[in-house]
Amino acid sequence: MRKSILTLAITLMSVFAYSQDKIYTHKGDFVVCKVTEMGEKSIKYKYEGEELTNSISKNLVSQVKFANGRIQKVSDKVVVSSELDWEKVIITNVESDIEGLTRVGEMMAKASSGWSMTNQGKMEKKAMDKLKKEASSHGCHIVLLLTTTGKGGHYGISGGTKASVTGVAYKY
User: Fold this and answer.
1) What is the pLDDT of residue 113?
2) What residues form DSSP beta bridges with 109?
3) Is 0.90 topped by the overall pTM?
């Protein structure tokens, strides 16, 4: 009896000596660790008994529950379940925004005005919207923009205005 009480006391002391934090991800899992730093783009943490510092992009994290019970919300999950959610899709050119996400594939969209009086900016926006719709049809919530090209005269003069965009789509 004395031995089991002593064992229980030692176990409890070791649990409290290394407080555990939990990082909850948008994928539905969590990491049990000790959070050491919360930066602008990432969270740094260590596993119990290890000195190696790991990091996870804040875009992947919904919240952190600290050992003292405090919960800190980190980011909202962008839910894209069909093409109807295309306006939720994020277009980025910052590679750290897609860290840790699942690559779905490269996508391209084009838009052209023919001989109308549409300017280059409007054609670029139309192509971006098409890219978002394509990404949303695959359940992706973010696209890393690779290229943007445009061709045509001012307000459709000299054969119309054209734009194309290429990107890589990602999801949780």
Assistant:
1) 80
2) 165
3) no
